[in-house]
Amino acid sequence: MSLRARGHAPGTMAHGYPAATPAARGARGGRAGFARRRLAAFGALLLTLTALPAAVLAVPDAVVNVVPAAASALELGDAEIAGLLRATGLSLPALVVAVPLAAVAARRFSAWPVLVTGLAVLLTGLGAVKFAHSVPLVGTVRAMQGAGAGIMLPACLVLVWERRSRALTAVWAGALAGTLILAMPLALKAVPVPADGVAVPDWRVALVPYPWAAVAAAVAALVHLLLRGRAPWELPASRHTERGQLLLPVVPAAAFAFLTVVAASEWSPGARLVVAGFALTALLGLALAAGRDAVAGSPFGCAIVMIAAGLLSHPVAGPLAGLAAADARERTGAADVPLLPFAVAAAAAMAGALASVRAGARHAVRTGYVLMIAALPLGFLTHLDDRRTVLVPLVLLGAGLGLALAASLRDAGVGAALFGLSLCFPAVLAGQLLVLSLQAARLERLRPLTEAEQIHALRHGYHVWLVVACAAAVLLAAATARHTRKTAAGPGAR
Q1: 72 Cβ partners below 8 Å, 6+ apart?
Q2: Which residues are bridge partners to 18 per DSSP?
Q3: What span, in angstroms and rounded, lies between the C-alpha atoms of 328 and 450?
Q4: How far from 354 is each of 79, 237, 401, CA to CA, in Å?
Q5: The whole model's pTM is what?
Q6: CB of 151 closer than 8 Å to CB of 121
Q7: Which of 412, 155, 470 is nearest to 293 (CA)?
Q8: What integer pLDDT is reported at residue 378 of this predicted model?
């Protein structure tokens, strides 16, 4: 099958990276060209390691730990707390809508201005937190943070893709998987539940637990611009067909984000589960349809693996961190989140991604799924007061996510990678809606009276979620394997 049949623009390589133009080849000649390439790659690496954490850290919502202080500061009654929590949870729905739109902009225009726009929106949202003196303003601030993060993510991916480096793409995949695992534990660590009798200095710190991450990303963006230079390494211009494919997830993502916001407090847990189930089905349908497309398709099922990465990262690790913090508070009086297991899992995600560079892509994707599926049942054996039992499933999960995600990007075009990214965060939102609804249903059924009983109910709901997640992972693995078999005869299938 020719490169044109696979949807690569003329002048592109089979590995999804742009082929060098004559001018670019001349610019890269000699030692000076080699030094420029190294500097440009370093700038892209620095951007990846700062922009991705800054964007993903906008997703967690730790305001639930300081609800009494927030309600007192905003003079809210008990009936208005649900509205506050709905407002603080707007960052992820805003991010979901922003990603596909920003993906089109990053391909239609230069990616660096799109990145700077996202950073500006994110920094504005972070800086405006001190003016959030009402629930509508809180919701506006959180939506700005999510929108800024959603604009940054595709732009960062395009800037990394320009380097045509398999290792750098793997670092991007490992950083995404690792930060999705580590984001909620970091947020809970920065905003713990206050001990009895201890006043919260300013509850709004929960809206911006790590402002320095966005500042570091802004500095890295400037450094990247300086190191990138003027070498003509841009990707081939996007075509109308590619932009149309990238816009396909916009309407479903916007509809799902809207339903999630509405359903968060007004619908029953069962109705929310139906919404999440339909959303996952729609996402898988889009991924399977894209697999047959010349622009958004990829040899190793990038879009499907992106759904798995979103569904099994933050929605699995975040509730576990919350349960560990609640258990620690019930036992010791201090809501201490054990960061070490989650940090090691994030490191395992990066290690798995880098290991995929020298491995066969098809086998690496399969191995990644095996590790993820093996990790989920081990979650039943975890003891919240024993970090070693928490460590094993998290490390397997992180390694599997990084390995499968990085390998699935092999030989994919930039359009396919961006399309997959547009499906990743709706999967995060769907997974979050599933686990929270299952836990809420368990609380409604048991009606616990003590804190220990509440933790038991929440943990039981989490165990049900692990069963659902394991079944979903098996389904996604089968869909990916089927897609890979169909494209095995394509270029680069090995």
Answers
A1: none
A2: 12
A3: 15
A4: 49, 29, 12
A5: 0.89
A6: yes
A7: 412
A8: 93
